[in-house]
What we know:
The protein is of the alpha+beta class and about 325 residues long. Among the domains are: about 5-130, no CATH class; about 250-330, Sporulation related repeat (Alpha-Beta Plaits, 2-Layer Sandwich), CATH 3.30.70.1070. It has seven helices and 15 strands. A hairpin with a 2-residue loop joins strand 7 and strand 8 (about 110-115). Helix 2 crosses helix 3. The longest helix has about 55 residues, at about 150-210. InterPro entries: HU-CCDC81_bac_1 (IPR040495), SPOR-like_dom (IPR007730), SPOR-like_sf (IPR036680). It comes from Olivibacter domesticus. This is SPOR domain-containing protein.
Amino acid sequence: MLNIGQYLHKLLLVHQEVGVPGIGIFKSERVPARFDEIKGTFLPPSNRYSFIQHEPVDHYLVNYISKTAGLNLEDANEALEKATVSLVTEIGNKGEIKIDEIGYLKEQEGAYVLVPFAPDSFWGLQPVKELISTPSTTSESEVVINADELTAEKGVAIQAEETQEAQNTFEEKSNNGKIWGWSIAALLLIAVSSFWWYTKNQSKTSVQSLPIAQHDGKETKPLIATDTVAIQNDTIKKVIDTVPAKKKPLIQKASKTLPYSIVLGSFKTMDLAIKQAEYFRTIGIDAFVLESNMPYNRKKICYGLYATKEEAKKQLEKVRNDINPEAYIFP
């Protein structure tokens, strides 16, 4: 028997949501590292689990079972189905079941509720107590320099170095002044030459670019740009597109003209089936609940109504690939 809890625990380290067919979707919320002021402890990052009772649309679990157990997808689906049937049966008998590494799954008022274990820390990290350190006092010896200890030879050397440095600074400023003077003169010459050349060429360009007017005695009317017509058409299209389409009802029934539909899943009660159909619509899947007057019949969640079985078969492969691999045609 598969240990679904172990598979869920590993998958939820990578994915935020992992679905179990026939039960619901398990979710993982990352809790960042934090400091507990009451205990004076740094807590590591952790995982917090939750659960929603919706028919899953992902295939993470069956693919992971197929890969780790060395089974093909068909055998992995069969093994997963047996495990989920066993879980549902045990919940029905005992009212709850322990899912390893995750928590206790209980049945309350016809719905499943998850009571998770304490948050699981990443990679086995443990809380760390805050370290309280006392600053150490150290005395530094002060170094005192007595100016009277400097010898006369050092004083003479310092004075000679200052005199030489002042002389070098004067010569450097003189040379820099000459360089700046020549640079400014060259820039002025280049600016005057550029202005004269630009003025000469601009006058030629102005004369050559004058348009030649043609008069035929008739008044010329301005033409309307084709872009304006395109913009008007686009505007009309946008206005038409913004008109809201009429939403299809959540509960529909088959008719004589459209008797066939594709079943995505089923629930015991109409309320659960409606909630699942609403969830499908929030993620872009136009699902609905097929109306049924049978009191003990499972309420089917369907996709599309078709006139013939052949039309339904054309859509069945796409539905199995994109939504649920176990979808089938009804009736």
